[in-house]
Design brief:
- By secondary structure, this protein is an alpha/beta fold.
- The protein has one domain: Isochorismatase-like (Rossmann fold, 3-Layer(aba) Sandwich), CATH 3.40.50.850.
- Helix content is 32%, strand content 21%.
- Strands 3-2-1-4-5-6 form a 6-stranded parallel β-sheet, sandwiched between helices.
- Helix 4 runs parallel beside helix 5.
- It is globular and about 40 Å long.
């Protein structure tokens, strides 16, 4: 079985007025929305959410963002999140760290993950790496990810491909499957 993991497509990252806006994140809404809708027809859709406490240690590195139970921590409306989708709230870069994502995937008998979202070189990268090291096949959808800079975007994709052996595809290839 396969699953789509949509990493941190949240208001604080994806909207221009967000606390930690990722430039051009809104440009992937249309494509990512098509990927999510297509995935719902054939596999589980799992949204990860950065979900920080007010005093999170991460705020020594980054501006305060995605504080639990705030509007900024919500998944963007453009992806039309549904109650039947799965939601993983995470406090660190990887969606596997301190969450039940691995348990959920094993219960669903998932072997292959398609991953999209933000930021390519941070939470997408760490989630993809942890997935590979747990034995999952990982495919990253290139045109459904964004990072804080072009350098970070390209670095993240290259790292996932060369270090974690993740396959990098375009959304058109996912939509054809």
């Amino acid at each position: 079985m396969e699953a789509l993991v949509v990493v941190d497509m949240q208001k604080d990252f994806c909207y221009r007025n967000g606390a930690l806006y990722i430039p051009d994140a809104e440009k992937i809404f249309d494509t990512a929305s098509k990927v999510v809708e297509s995935a719902r027809e054939r596999m589980p859709v799992i949204f990860t959410q950065d979900w920080h406490r007010e005093d999170d240690v991460e705020f020594k590195i980054w501006p305060k963002h995605c504080v639990m139970n705030t509007e900024g921590a919500e998944v963007v409306d453009e992806l039309n999140p549904k109650p039947e989708d799965y939601y993983i709230k995470k406090r660190r870069y990887s969606a596997f760290f301190g969450t039940d994502l691995d348990l959920l995937l094993r219960e669903l008998e998932v072997k292959k993950l398609y991953i999209c979202g933000v930021a390519t070189n941070i939470c997408v990268l760490h989630t993809a790496g942890d997935a590979v090291l747990r034995g999952y096949e990982v495919v990253v959808i290139r045109d459904c990810t964004r990072a804080l800079s072009d350098y970070d975007y390209e670095y993240g994709l290259r790292h996932m491909e060369s270090i974690f052996n993740a396959k990098i595809i375009e959304s058109k290839d996912f939509l054809k499957v």
